[in-house]
Design goal:
Elements (H helix, E strand, L loop, with lengths): L1 E6 L3 H10 L6 E4 L16 E2 L11 H20 L4 E2 L3 E5 L2 H16 L5 E3 L1 H7 L9 E5 L3 E3 L1 H14 L3 E3 L4 E6 L4 E5 L4 E9 L5 H5 L13 E8 L10 E4 L9 E4 L5 E4 L3 E2 L10 H14 L10 E7 L8 E4 L6 E5 L5 H16 L4
Parallel strand pairs: 1-2, 1-12, 2-9, 5-14, 12-20
Antiparallel strand pairs: 3-8, 4-8, 5-7, 6-7, 10-11, 11-12, 13-16, 13-17, 13-18, 15-16, 19-20
Helix pairs in contact: 1-5, 1-8, 2-8
The structure holds flavin-adenine dinucleotide.
């Protein structure tokens, strides 16, 4: 009987395993893929968001954990030697309405005591030579960066392994039975795992896992696909910082995102779909990316695009993350609805699960 079984080895499950491994508990993390961090955690923008882009009106817990997570990354990328790019981000306005919204964004940042510096079009063009002539002004968010999330999970796994945690990969949980002592999980490898607590960190599959235990989960998965194209390392100097449009109501928009390896990601789109695993790239998606990117920058070397991909956001039918004990079986812990900014928040989510949910101090 394990103290904890964690279902899901993306950045969230891996950080939770890392966090709990310091508390002398028996822990197994179960991942259906051959490797950690190959699903949502690897098919995203890899941005450690500035907390300015995660306001509390989009979810109080999200805003709190994104802020704490952003602060944690500033040092952990260095102490764990994770490839990263501390390059900041510009939010760019292209018309009067957006200039006004930029102002509102800055006011909100000042109120929260966060870094957000106004920059005019001439100064911007000195920093970013390919900014579109339509850009009227920007906001610089110093504490945004990108990090290699795959390398991060590999490093966390190595440390966590040496702390005694077991990682079972290529093992898909098919069923969970509630028992007197806790839970018995069975897998497609015909193994069973017994645990006092189950932590559901299954990303876009979180509702599927929850339904193995609960009759009526209190959230519904609403997957949203995000498509990208990627410029090669040879275009490393096309832009320096991450470029955002002024955010719309429900998404952060389509961005230009330099990565630690010198490649530049253009995207993501945001399209609701019913499928939990259809990550195809469409011509409509690529057209939408081109048209949005062209409003931020000129001379985009689309002819050099080296690859395209899509990720599926584990969005649920509510704005905030859903983290807490099951109302039916309290030993089962939901860590669900972890869409963006889940990478940013992951270290803080792990601490929150340990301190606030499990009360392990
Ligand atoms: C397009 C897009 C852009 C994004 N951009 C950003 C960004 O720039 N910054 C940011 O902070 N966040 C971003 N996010 C969000 C971020 O990627 C996610 O919040 C984060 O990766 C979620 O991690 P996770 O561990 O919960 O999920 P995942 O990485 O999906 O991990 C869940 C794991 O559970 C496993 N699993 C599922 N079912 C089972 C089962 N039955 N048995 C065993 N294992 C199972 C899966 O194989 C998977 O590995 C983005 C997401 C997308 C899709």
């Amino acid at each position: 009987m394990q103290d904890f079984v964690i279902v899901g080895g993306g950045v969230v499950g891996t950080f939770i395993a890392f966090e709990l491994s310091k508390y002398n508990k028996t822990i197994t993390l179960i991942e259906k893929e051959k490797d950690l961090a190959t699903v949502q955690t690897r098919h995203n923008s890899a941005l450690v968001h500035s907390p300015v882009m995660v306001p509390p009106n989009k979810g109080k817990l999200k805003a709190k954990l994104a802020l704490e997570g952003n602060r944690a990354y500033q040092t952990l990328v260095e102490t764990l030697n994770i490839p990263h790019l501390k390059n900041g981000a510009y939010v760019l306005a292209v018309n009067d309405d957006e200039m006004e919204r930029l102002h509102t964004l800055q006011e909100a940042a000042i109120e929260r005591n966060l870094n957000a510096e106004r920059i005019g079009p001439d100064a911007l063009r000195q920093k970013e030579k390919n900014i579109s002539p339509d850009v009227r002004g920007g906001l610089f968010l110093k504490d945004a960066m990108t990090a290699d999330t795959y390398a991060l999970c590999q490093t966390l796994e190595q440390i966590t392994l040496s702390n005694g945690v077991t990682f079972k990969k290529a093992t898909r949980i098919r069923d969970i039975r509630v028992t007197e002592e806790g839970f018995t999980l069975s897998s497609d490898t015909d193994e069973t795992f017994r645990a006092k607590h189950v932590i559901n960190a299954a990303g876009v599959q979180a509702e599927t896992i929850a339904r193995m235990v609960e009759k009526t989960p209190r959230y519904t998965m609403k997957p949203h696909r995000g498509e990208y194209m990627v410029l090669p390392e040879s275009q490393r100097h096309f832009v320096n910082a991450t470029l955002f449009p002024v955010p719309q109501h429900d998404t952060k928009g389509i961005l230009v995102i330099p990565q630690p390896d010198g490649t530049i990601r253009l995207g993501p789109t945001s399209t609701y779909q019913t499928s939990l695993d259809d990550a195809s790239v469409t011509s409509e998606g690529l057209d939408a990316i081109r048209s949005a990117v062209d409003t931020l920058v000129s001379n985009v070397p689309y002819e050099t695009v080296e690859t395209t991909y899509a990720g599926i956001r584990s969005t649920i039918d509510q704005d905030d993350f859903y983290i807490g004990r099951s109302h039916e079986h309290p030993g089962f812990i939901h860590v669900a609805g972890i869409d963006s900014p889940g990478v940013t928040s992951a270290p803080a989510i792990a601490r929150y699960v340990r301190e606030e949910i499990l009360k392990l101090k």
